[in-house]
Amino acid sequence: MKFFNKINILLIVTIILLILIYYFSNKTIERYKNKLVEPLQKFRNENTGIDKTLNELKDDLNTTETDIKNLNEDLKTNKSNIKNLNEEYANKPWYCAHIKATNTSHKGTWDADEAMSYLGKQKWGNSQLITPMEPYGNEKKLGYAPPWFINLPYKKKNMWWWDFKDIKSMTDKCYEVRDQIRPKIPGVDVKLNEQKKIEENIRDKTEKLKEINVKIETVTEQQRVAAAAAERERALAEAKAKADAAEKKQIELYQNQIKDLSIDIKKFVIQADKQKNILKSTQDKVSQQQITGVIKPDITDDMTDINNNNNSIQEILNNFNNSKEETLNNLNKSKKLLIDSQEKIRIIQDSVKKYKTTVEQKILSINAEKERQEKLQKEREQLLNDGQQFKNKLKSLETTKSQLQAEISNLESNALNSQSKIKSINSKTLDTKKKIVK
Questions:
Q1: 406 part of a folded domain
Q2: Are residues 264 and 182 in the same domain?
Q3: Rounded to whole angstroms, how far apart are CA atoms 150 and 132?
Q4: pTM for this structure?
Q5: Fewest CB atoms within 10 A around its CB: which of 18, 172, 271, 358?
Q6: How many domains are contained in the chain?
Q7: Which domain holds residue 154?
Q8: Are residues 359 and 269 in the same domain?
Q9: Residue 381 forms part of a structural domain
Q10: Domain closes at, from 186, 220, 247
Q11: Percentage of residues of the chain with pLDDT beyond 70
Q12: Between β-strands 128-133 and 94-99, what pairing exists: parallel, antiparallel or unpaired?
C-alpha cells in the first residue's frame, strides 16, 4: 500500500512539473516571438508612408491604364467614324465652279447650290460652269461633264459656255487644280482634331504611365531595401533570441549545478553537526571514564568554515541574475566552496574518528583491566573461600579423626570382649558337638 502511495505522489509531482514546464515554455516562446515580430512591426510602422505612396501609385497606374484603354477605344471609334465618313463620301461627287473670264476655279464643295452660288449671271463673253468631279480620290478623264449638267439652271445663275470645247477647257481647269480645291469631307476635320487630341492625350497618359512605373520601381526598391533591412534586423533578432535562449539555458544549467552544489554543502553542514555530536558523546565518555592522556580535537574553525561556505552559496542562490559570465563565476566559486567544504569535513571526520577510536581503545583497555581486576578479585575471593572451606573441612576431619580414634578404641575393646565371648562360644560349641557325638 505504501508503495502505491509513493507511485501516486511521484505521478502528481511529474504532472505538476510538466504543467510548469509547458507554462513557462509558452511564456518564453511568446516572449521570443514578440522579439522576432518587433522588427517587422517597426518596418511596417516606419514604412506606412511608403506603403501609402505605393498604393496611391498603383491606383494611379490602374486609373491611367484604364484611361489609356478608354482613349484607345475612343481612338478606335474615332478612326472608325473617319473611315465610315470616307466610305460614305467615296462615291459622292463634289463640285467645282469655274469662271473663265477671271480664270478662277473656286473651292470645291459637296453642295451643287453652293457651287452655283459662285457663278455670275449669264451674259455674252462670260463662260462659266460648275462641273461634278469624280468621286473623292479617284482619277477622272479631263473634259468630262455629265449631260444632265449641260445648260442646267440654278437659281437664276446659269452655266454659260460657247461649245463643248469651251466646257472641256473649263472642266480641265477644275481638274488641274483638283487637289488644291478638293473639299474636305464634312466632319472629318472635327474627327481628325479629336483624333489628334486623343493621340496627344494617349501620349501624355503613356508618358505619365512611364513616370508612374518609374516611381513604382523607385518606391518598390525603397520598400525592398526597407524590407531587406527589416528582414536582416529580424534575422539578427532571431539569432539574438536563439543566442539569448541558449545563453538562458546555459545560465539555468549553471544555476542548477550551483543548486546541486548547495545541496552537497548543506549535507556537509549536517555531517559536521553529526560529527560534533559524536565528538560530544565521545567527550562525555571520556569524562565518565575519567580517561586521561587523550587530546580532544578542535573542529570549531573547520565547522565555522563549512557554515560560512554554506552561507556564501546561499547568498549566491538568493542573488541569481541573467549574466552568463557572472553565473559562471558563481558556479566556479561554488565549486571551490564545495571542494573546501569537502576538505574540511574530511579533516573533521578524520579527527573525530581518530579521537573516537583512541577513546574507544582506552575504554576497551580500561574495561579489560577492570575485567582482569574483577576476575583476579573473584579468583582471590574464591581462593579465600576455598581455603576457609579447606580449613573447615580439615577441622571437621580432625574432629572425625578423634571420633574415629574413640570409636576404634571402643571397637578394640569390644573386639577383645568379643574374642572372649567367641572363645567361650567356641568352647561351648565344641562341648555341644562332643555331647551330640556321644
A1: no
A2: no
A3: 11
A4: 0.43
A5: 18
A6: 2
A7: 91-186
A8: yes
A9: no
A10: 186
A11: 81
A12: antiparallel
